[in-house]
């Protein structure tokens, strides 16, 4: 009996939690210890120099943790009443008020949650996993793809449009029909200029294996991997394989437009997630990392000024009391979309460079369901439902609490103009919009729905967007300017990385800037 790598890791996690799982990864040659994926060694110590850190998102927490360990006197200014920035988890009692909108209070049951900010950690984001391991954050596998899930397409035509189709069926049939066409072209001599006789035979062998082709004619008649009409069972029930769709029906459905055989680098099929929600990562910095005692919460930055000797940051707390925080240097992790609205005193050239970064409108909604119908009725465990309806984007099924009673799924994940359009709806209207579409795919969607929690990141006061976006021109012209300090102020965050929209971008940007700051401070000592 053999065991897959995934199953082995799952058993390690069940027996020994995060530590044993990560030891297993290292045994597979996927460990997280390397010179390029660890924080810089801040040799010589900070000598008590005062560092002001603006923002307690993952970039700010990383900066505070590492500089604090090195002996710097760190103060973190955070506008919210909690740490984590966009690394948030909506769970029972969590509140969010968007600009111009009503306050939402999450009414999910205890144990139910939605990561309405970051929600996945690719295995190659070693910087994020570094702190997962450092703080002993318990993690589990996140199923980022599922062949048994559905695809639903509204823009195509024919018998496959506007109905849920298993991804495995689409994938197998597109591959099979395409391989059959290639095989017949090869047999007819159409590719003789590309191949000699030996290569032609090997190519035909490859196509037969890749496309599940049968016989000397290399025909595609389906494969058991696409599913069954009658499932195999005991006794005389051998099963009956499902029949392939016609190639023309597949093409007219346009389902193939979002189907790829190789996932993008940041969309690995298997990822990680902290158990209980992504907020467990910033919680690790705050509690086990000791950063919590350095954070001044509910305090908003109004003005930044600096001179040859230091930096002064004018702030106002939740009671309306104003004060000035002084330091030798400053690391600013405030999103550029928000920083542009603050009186920074930066040079015109630096301000112009800040304008080169736009921020993506992004919307998400979590839907608590009283029954896990996707598992019970359709045998779908994690993964996504893909659709071409951009105002929904994708529906994602939870990779936690398998076979439990209730579950919370991601009802939509949309971007840009589609996110802006849906964000104009009230929270209740957003929930109805998401449920109405999901009902087209799952018959039990509406009757199972209990409560919702949504976010439009471009309407969140201290973010004003989901993540930073750079055009090629702005990346070449403005991005390098912002990588350098503006006097004694260093910028950090996912927007100052090539890993935009991911926590790893914020962490590694912080590593870069604290290293530069430390070298400068050490030289001046």
On the 0 to 100 scale, the average pLDDT is 92
What is the distance, rounded to the nearest whole angstrom, between the alpha carbons of the first and last residues? 63 Å
Strands side by side in the biggest sheet: 14-2-1-18-26
Q: Pairing-aware structural class of the strands and helices?
A: alpha+beta
Helix count equals 16
Major β-sheet annotation: 5 strands, parallel
Low-confidence spans: 15-23, 26-36
DSSP strand tally = 26
The helicity comes to 25-40%
Radius of gyration over alpha carbons?
26 Å
Any idea what the shape is?
globular
The oligomeric state is single chain
Question: Beta-strand percentage?
Answer: 15-25%
Main attributes?
525 residues
Explain what the structure shows.
The chain has 525 residues and is of the alpha+beta class. The protein has 16 helices and 26 strands. The strands form 9 sheets. A 5-stranded parallel β-sheet has the order 14-2-1-18-26, covered by helices on one side. A 4-stranded mixed β-sheet has the order 8-7-21-22.
Question: Could you outline the blueprint of secondary structure elements for this entry?
Answer:
Blueprint: H1 5-27, E1 50-54, H2 58-69, E2 73-77, E3 95-97, E4 103-105, E5 121-122, H3 126-134, E6 139-143, E7 150-152, E8 165-166, H4 167-188, H5 197-211, E9 213-214, E10 219-220, E11 228-230, E12 240-241, H6 247-253, E13 270-274, H7 280-286, E14 295-296, E15 299-306, E16 311-317, E17 322-327, E18 329-332, H8 336-339, H9 348-354, E19 357-359, E20 362-369, H10 373-376, E21 384-387, E22 394-396, E23 407-415, H11 416-423, H12 427-439, H13 445-448, E24 449-456, E25 468-470, H14 472-477, H15 479-483, E26 489-491, H16 503-524
Parallel strand pairs: 1-2, 1-18, 2-14, 7-21, 18-26
Antiparallel strand pairs: 3-4, 5-13, 6-13, 7-8, 9-10, 11-12, 15-16, 16-17, 19-25, 20-23, 20-24, 21-22
